[in-house]
UniProtKB/TrEMBL annotation, chain A:
Classification of source organism: Bacteria, Bacillati, Bacillota, Bacilli, Bacillales
Transmembrane segments: 6-25, 32-49, 55-77, 89-110, 135-160
Protein name: NADH-quinone oxidoreductase subunit J
Sorted UniProt keywords: Cell membrane, Membrane, NAD, Oxidoreductase, Quinone, Transmembrane, Transmembrane helix
Catalysed reactions listed for this entry: a quinone + NADH + 5 H(+)(in) = a quinol + NAD(+) + 4 H(+)(out)
Enzyme category, top tier: translocase
Claim: Cytoplasm is one of the keywords in the record: no
GO molecular function: NADH dehydrogenase (ubiquinone) activity; oxidoreductase activity; quinone binding
UniProtKB/TrEMBL annotation, chain B:
Keyword Coiled coil: no
InterPro entries: NADHpl_OxRdtase_5_subgr (IPR018393), ND/Mrp_TM (IPR001750), NU5C-like (IPR003945), Proton_antipo_N (IPR001516)
Membrane-topology annotation of the record: Multi-pass membrane protein
Any one Gene Ontology cellular component term annotated for this protein: plasma membrane
Protein name: NADH-quinone oxidoreductase subunit L
Family as reported in the entry's similarity comment: Belongs to the CPA3 antiporters (TC 2.A.63) subunit A family.
Gene: nuoL
Membrane-crossing residue ranges in chain numbering: 6-22, 29-52, 72-98, 110-130, 136-156, 168-187, 207-224, 245-268, 274-296, 303-325, 331-352, 372-391, 406-430, 451-475, 495-517, 566-582, 594-614
Domain of life, source organism: Bacteria
Keywords on record: Membrane, Transmembrane, Transmembrane helix
A matching Pfam family: Proton_antipo_N
Domain (NADH:quinone oxidoreductase/Mrp antiporter transmembrane) ranges: 130-419
Keyword Acetylation: no
GO BP annotations listed: ATP synthesis coupled electron transport; electron transport coupled proton transport
Automatic annotation (TrEMBL), chain C:
Species, as recorded: Salinibacillus xinjiangensis
Enzyme class: translocase
Keywords: Cell membrane, Membrane, NAD, Oxidoreductase, Quinone, Translocase, Transmembrane, Transmembrane helix, Transport
GO biological process: ATP synthesis coupled electron transport
EC number(s) given by UniProt: 7.1.1.-
Protein name stated in the entry: NADH-quinone oxidoreductase subunit K
Location within or outside the cell: Cell membrane; Membrane
GO cellular component annotations of the record: NADH dehydrogenase complex; plasma membrane
PANTHER family: NADH-UBIQUINONE OXIDOREDUCTASE CHAIN 4L, NADH-UBIQUINONE OXIDOREDUCTASE SUBUNIT ND4L
Keyword Nucleus: no
Record's bilayer topology term: Multi-pass membrane protein
Length: 168, 618, 104
């Protein structure tokens, strides 16, 4: 029972708690905030896994950008909206059973999985390592991702723009 | 010439097709076309017949179907019997085509009538030329079809419609018997060719019981077609058709097909004394049964119809007592005088527009020729000495006597006596006595109708001389030449039989004269008696059939209707509902909601994953 | 280096994935459905990062891939949000069960 293990327990607990709260809370904004809890906890987990850069990106992108976009989405639509839990109880029950079966199925697959002692030194100059890897090996995917981002940006603008605005 | 024999049935078929296709164009001309082609058919038939007298036998076959090792052929068989029938049918058909020109004049469906008439002629000619039973059966049914179409020619009259249906259904009952017999024969002999069947009978390939069974089944077919008791009821009703049709189909040719069938299958019958006995008894019973009904009927054509049934009974009787040549000879003479009687009756009806003999009388002044030919026909059918019927009937009586069937002999004598009574009742009531019709209502008879009647009258008088014990038995000799199995059977006639026949015939005529001309006997008691009512209602046969078979089938039908209503329909409704429910559910599941679709897809994935895991798939 | 076994991370990821899946398939509000999808993506990211440390073939590549995933997820959220807003203008509602255009 070392500090690392305690940290993992706390972080994983908060992550799961965030998810469960998201499922059970009434207000949409509360749901969003509870999910932020999960995102932040996951960032901590990433640090435990020697992935500081990813952890930072997680906080920046998820806890920051994505959450803000979703919050804007909520505000622009019915921000007072409450989510009635589900539209169809039968479907919820069926999906629940299905998810449980899925859980145990996958659990059976990952139980007692062990590949070795793990990598050494990923945390040493983590950002530099990532930078080298991206720009040495994954330049083209990187550039493609930038194009995807650009297209997404334009697409978002086009879609969100009011219809018939170009006529003005 | 004989190799062109196939033209004989083909030519009327051509007429049929021509008239059906060009019905609108030809109109009045279609009648002349039909008469012309039937004339050519008759000439071809005559030439073929003349050559056949020298050749004796002719067979031409094309392979039609091959099933395993069995060959079914299609072809033409000519032997004395076929040749005689061919000539007879072609000749009478030609005369009736000509007669119809006048009789059907002005009818709306003039061309159609000739088309049907040609179809029938073609089928009948094909029938008599068939070398095997299958082809025979096909033409047999075609003949039935022609008869059906022509009986129902005035289809807008309900009675004609009913009569056509009745004829079709009643003969169909007989045809089922024929078909079963045909199948049994095929099963036993592996062939349907007449020669193979004769061979099989001669070789004793079939057991006696089987031969009897087949012979009786085939005879049932003949009963249906030839209007023998108990399937005779359609024939009087068939008089709803135009009179030329009655003359051609229901007197001279088609109804004789039953007799012809028995003649064709004669070796089979000769091998079974029981079957022969049945043929003889049915024939004799029909002869007297129909003759008694004919005594009291008041419809001109009905009386002739019953007389046809009775005469066919005579032919069957002859067939049943080994009087093969006598039966065919009577068929031959009967065709002439019965066609003549019908044509005469037709011209009476044509002139006065009624068929009820109570409304006629004294027509011999107005319709001199018709009256004369009708008298000739009546004398012929009554067996008046030296007329054709005298010789043929006398020969039948001789055959019956020679076989020692004295019971049947008495029946035949009585039936012959009754024949002359009812024929002369008809003659006296229609042509003698006081005229009950106003004079201007009587239309003249056109030439096209007169000529066939005169020709037929000649034949009615003289056709008997083709086969007499005085001048030579030409027809009998000719027939026996082609049928070797007939050897050793010859019924010579004797003087006393001729005298008896003459006495019977003259006695009948005298009785009719006394009753209907001199009113010598009191008819009132007779008319109120139960026997009279029974005869007038044809022994209540129609009512009997109606109450048993028709009502019975109706009852069964009703029962099945209820089964259909409450059982079958229930199942069908259930199935329908099932499908509807399924489709409702199915269409309801098409909500268009991506989330639901995804959920279903996910559940499917889970199912597969779970099965995979349970099978220990990792 | 780390004392926590790989399966602990994987089970955490599985739990989060299941929560996200359940929410995505049952929630009516489209924004919540989007959030749930993000949660599922996060669970996948966690797997990537865990395998980069403790996997069969450890290395920095897993982290790089998780970065790509995060980027794509961000783009997806942006487009998704834009569609949602357009839809909202059109129908004045954000519930998934009102979107049944596929039926036609």
């Amino acid at each position: 029972m070392n500090g690392e293990f305690i940290a993992f327990l706390i972080l994983s607990f908060t992550a799961i708690l965030g998810g469960i709260l998201m499922l059970n809370l009434k207000k949409v904004v509360h749901m969003l905030l509870s999910v932020v809890l999960t995102f932040v906890s996951l960032a901590g987990i990433y640090v435990l896994l020697s992935a500081e850069f990813v952890a930072v990106v997680q906080i920046l992108i998820y806890s920051g950008a994505v959450t803000i976009i979703l919050a804007f989405g909520i505000m622009l639509t019915k921000h007072t909206a409450r989510d009635e839990r589900t539209s169809n109880r039968l479907r919820a029950a069926l999906v629940g059973v299905g998810v449980l079966v899925f859980f145990f199925t996958v659990y059976g697959a990952i139980d007692n999985l062990f590949f070795g002692p793990g990598a050494e030194g990923l945390h040493v100059e983590n950002t530099q390592q990532i930078g080298e890897r991206i720009f040495a090996h994954y330049v083209i995917p990187f550039e493609l991702v930038s194009i995807v981002l650009l297209v997404a940006l334009m697409g978002a603008i086009v879609l969100a723009r009011k219809e018939g605005e170009e006529n003005k | 010439m004989i190799e062109f024999a196939w033209l004989i049935p083909a030519l009327p078929l051509l007429t049929f097709l021509l008239l059906i296709v060009l019905r609108e164009k030809l109109k009045k001309a279609s009648g002349y076309v039909a008469v012309l082609i039937s004339g050519i058919t008759f000439i071809v038939a005559t030439l073929v017949f003349l050559q056949l007298i020298d050749v004796g036998n002719f067979l031409m076959e094309w392979s039609w179907l091959t099933i395993g090792s069995i060959d079914i052929s299609f072809g033409i068989l000519l032997n004395p019997l076929n040749g005689l029938m061919l000539l007879l049918v072609a000749f009478i058909s030609f005369l009736i085509h000509m007669y119809s020109l006048g009789y059907m004049d002005g009818d709306q469906r003039f061309s159609t009538f000739f088309a049907y008439l040609s179809l029938f002629t073609s089928a009948m000619l094909g029938l008599v030329m068939s070398p095997n039973l299958l082809q025979f059966y096909m033409f047999w049914e075609l003949v039935g079809l022609g008869s059906f179409l022509l009986i129902g020619f005035y289809f807008y009259k309900n009675s004609a419609k009913q009569a056509a249906k009745k004829a079709f259904i009643m003969t169909r009952i007989g045809d089922v018997g024929l078909l079963i017999g045909l199948i049994l024969l095929f099963w036993q002999t592996n062939s349907l060719r007449f020669v193979d069947i004769y061979q099989a009978v001669t070789n004793g390939d079939m057991s006696g019981g089987m031969i009897t069974l087949i012979a009786i089944l085939i005879f049932i077919g003949a009963i249906g077609k030839s209007g023998q008791f108990p399937l005779h009821t359609w024939l009087p009703d068939a008089m709803e058709g135009p009179t030329p049709v009655s003359a051609l189909i229901h007197a001279a040719t088609m109804v004789a097909a039953g007799v012809y069938l028995v003649a064709v299958m004669y070796p089979l019958y000769m091998a079974s004394s029981l079957a022969m006995m049945i043929v003889a008894i049915v024939g004799a019973f029909t002869a007297i049964y129909a003759a008694t009904i004919g005594l009291v009927q008041n419809d001109l054509k009905q009386v002739l119809a019953y007389s046809t049934i009775s005469q066919l009974g005579f032919m069957m009787l002859a067939m049943g007592v080994l009087g093969y040549t006598a039966g065919i000879f009577h068929l031959f003479t009967h065709a002439f005088f019965k066609a003549l009687l019908f044509l005469a009756a037709g011209s009476v009806i044509h002139a006065v527009h009624t068929q009820n003999i109570k409304e006629m009388g004294g027509l011999n002044q107005k319709l001199k020729l018709t009256s004369a030919v009708f008298l000739i026909g009546a004398l012929a059918i009554s067996g008046f000495p030296l007329f054709s019927g005298f010789f043929s009937k006398e020969e039948i009586l001789a055959s019956v006597w020679a076989e020692g069937q004295y019971g049947l002999f008495i029946i035949a004598i009585v039936a012959a006596f009754l024949t002359s009574v009812y024929m002369f009742r008809l003659y006296f009531l229609v042509f003698h006595g006081e005229s009950k019709l106003t004079l201007d209502k009587v239309k003249p008879v056109p030439m096209t109708m007169k000529i066939p009647m005169m020709v037929l009258a000649l034949f009615a008088i003289f056709s008997g001389f083709f086969n007499t014990s005085w001048f030579g038995t030409y027809i009998a000799d000719f027939l026996e030449e082609g049928a070797t199995y007939l050897e050793g059977i010859h019924h010579g006639s004797s003087i006393w039989l001729m005298l008896l026949a003459t006495v019977v015939s003259l006695g009948g005529i005298a009785l009719a004269y006394l009753i209907y001309v001199k009113n010598a006997l009191n008819q009132e008691n007779w008319k109120t008696s139960g026997t009279y009512q029974m005869l007038l209602n044809k022994y209540y046969m129609d009512e009997f059939y109606d109450n048993t078979f028709v009502k019975g089938s109706r009852g069964i039908g009703l029962g099945f209707q209820y089964v259909e209503k409450y059982f079958v329909r229930l199942i069908i409704l259930f199935i329908g509902d099932l499908v509807t429910t399924f489709s409702r559910t199915g269409s309801k599941s098409q909500t268009g909601q991506a989330q639901t679709y995804t959920a279903v897809a996910f559940l499917g994935l889970v199912l597969f994953a779970a099965v995979y895991m349970l099978k220990g798939g990792y | 280096m780390t004392t926590i076994p790989l399966q602990a991370y994987l089970i955490l990821a599985l739990i989060l994935f299941c929560i996200g899946l359940f929410g995505a398939l049952t929630k009516r509000n489209t924004i919540i459905v989007l959030i749930c999808i993000e949660l599922m993506l996060n669970a996948v990211n966690l797997n990537l990062v865990a395998f980069s440390q403790l996997g069969n073939n450890p290395g920095i590549t897993g982290q790089v891939f998780s970065l790509f995933t995060i980027t794509i997820a961000a783009a997806e959220v942006a487009v998704g949000m834009a569609i949602l807003i357009a839809w909202y203008r059109h129908k004045n509602g954000v519930n998934v069960d009102e979107m049944d255009g596929l039926k036609d």
